[in-house]
Write a structure and sequence with these properties.
The protein is α+β, with helices and mostly antiparallel strands. The chain has helices at 36-42, 51-60, 67-77, 89-93, 98-103, 105-114, 120-128, 142-151, 184-195, 224-227, 231-240, 268-278, 282-292, 303-321, and strands at residues 3-5, 11-15, 18-21, 29-31, 81-83, 132-136, 156-160, 215-218, 244-250, 253-260, 331-336, 341-347, 367-376.
Length: 377
């Protein structure tokens, strides 16, 4: 073990015997009491010394026997200690890919905060490289989501879309002007490859068979398909148990979610049944809207809002892939121009939906706005 205090956490002394690791409340840790000798030893926990050397230096500082090991144990339990030798074989193999780790340095720092155990950052990066994600849509929102996922180390990002790139699809971080006229799927594939920090592991380097889809991100250029998704489109994902996340912009309103966990949280069918039950005219209007989407003119998809939606959706997707349940699980976050106040609408399972989520304890179906869950844009 070569322990080091996580460099992502800024360090400051609250008083002569108390040190705080981290600034923000979400991840800050207050640690104490710390005497002068122990404080000096903290400075040496930089990943360059093994435990044997640290014990010797601790003894030279006057620390009693066993106190160095106890300090390391307490720091690890507090989630502020890292170890470059931890994480397992797959994580350690990444150390032979410095060009990848340099690109993913900030991502490693972030993962070290949410994966609190020593070596959690490397383990998280290694896990991402084995994951397969599919993005449905390559417009201003979908293409940027795909680029962010690939750039964050997701090993395989597939983009499905039809037609050719139009000028309105071009966006910073997404498809560039040189993509105009190219098949959308081809241009998005090139964007994903250019965004990735090194190639993903080859088949012979992976453990086990070809990975299944860990997540589908539905980010259609026509925001209606994210706002009021067609249950038939999602039926195969629900049947196969594939999690899927909706994101898009419709008429100046951005949305992220819900993240659907088949059989557990409300799905597209639940949302549609709930809306039809509340609004007698919804089903009739939905048929008209869905039939007319190919005849509409340019969509109202503000570049700033589209970028915000793509970034938030990608962050939620990464949180899920890293083993957490983001705030879009069973809920949809919406923000409309010009105020851009993010509001949460909960999506409950519908008892009549064949997805079966109602039997998991989600209760009666509704899409209820919860005004207390807001976030200023």
């Amino acid at each position: 073990m070569y322990p080091k205090v996580k460099p992502a956490l800024a360090r400051a002394w609250r008083d002569l015997q108390t040190v705080q690791f981290g600034v923000t409340p979400a991840h800050a840790v207050v640690f104490g009491p710390v005497d002068t000798a122990t404080g000096s030893l903290l400075e040496r926990l930089d990943g360059t010394r093994g435990m044997e050397l640290l014990r010797k230096e601790g003894a030279a500082l006057g620390l009693p026997g066993g106190q160095v090991d106890e300090l390391v144990r307490r720091l690890a339990a507090a989630g502020v200690l890292d170890d470059a030798t931890a994480g397992g074989p797959r994580a350690q193999s990444l150390l032979r890919r410095p060009e990848v780790l340099e690109r993913l340095g900030p991502d490693r720092g972030s993962l070290s905060l949410v994966r609190r155990e020593p070596g959690g950052d490397l383990r998280g990066i290694a896990a991402r490289r084995t994951v397969r994600v599919q993005v449905r849509g390559s417009g201003r929102v979908g293409a940027l989501i795909a680029a962010v996922l690939a750039g964050a180390g997701v090993g395989r990002v597939e983009v499905l879309d039809g037609g050719r790139v139009e000028p309105g699809d071009v966006a910073p971080g997404g498809l560039g002007p040189e993509s105009v006229g190219r098949p959308r799927a081809e241009a998005a594939g090139a964007l994903v490859r250019a965004s990735a920090p090194g190639r993903a592991p080859r088949a012979q380097e992976r453990e086990g068979p070809e990975p299944g889809l860990a997540l589908v991100v539905v980010a259609p250029r026509d925001g209606l398909q994210a706002w009021a998704p067609d249950p038939d489109t999602a039926a195969d994902w629900v049947a196969a148990g594939i999690p899927h996340l909706y994101a898009g912009v419709l008429e100046g309103t951005g949305l992220v979610g819900p993240l659907v966990l088949p059989g557990t949280t409300g799905c597209a069918g639940c949302m549609e049944r709930a809306r039809v039950a509340r609004d007698r005219g919804w089903a009739r209007m939905l048929v008209q809207w869905r039939g007319a989407h190919r005849r509409r003119g340019p969509v109202a998809c503000d570049l700033g809002l589209a970028t915000a939606v793509a970034g938030l959706a990608a962050a939620h997707a990464l949180a899920f892939l890293d083993g957490e349940l983001p705030a879009s699980t069973g809920a949809r976050w919406e923000a409309a121009l010009p105020g851009l106040h993010w509001e949460r609408a909960r999506v409950r399972a519908h008892p009549e939906c064949p997805c079966g989520a109602a039997g998991s304890g989600e209760g009666d179906s509704s899409v209820a706005r919860e005004g207390q869950d807001t976030m200023a844009g």
